[in-house]
Amino acid sequence: EKKFGEIKEITGATDGNLSVNLSKMEAGGYITNRKDFYNKKPRTRYKLTEFGIESFRDYVELLGSIISGNK
User: What is the Cα–Cα distance from 47 to 30, expressed in whole angstroms?
Assistant: First the structure.
């Protein structure tokens, strides 16, 4: 589980770009979000779904097979 700011720091994406991409990933079922307040400030946290984890593993496997020339 990662907060919006953590994901932004890791990816180097802008607020707008990250927000759009996270929304698309959520709509696709790859992630979920949880909103709450911490020290009276809004906080949004994101987490990969099982579908998201499986899809990412499949994608990495596909990339590996392309690199090794098996696809």
Answer: 9
pLDDT of res. 71:
63
H helix runs in the chain, sequence order: 4-11, 15-27, 50-67
Spell out the residues 6+ positions from residue 52 whose beta carbon is closer than 8 angstroms to its own.
25, 29, 30, 31
Q: pTM to 2 decimals?
A: 0.82
Provide long-range contacts, Cβ within 8 A and 24+ apart, for 55-64.
Answer: 55/30, 56/30
Residue 70: band (very low, low, confident or very high) from pLDDT cuts 50, 70, 90: confident
Q: CA torsion sign, 60 to 63 to 69 to 70?
A: positive
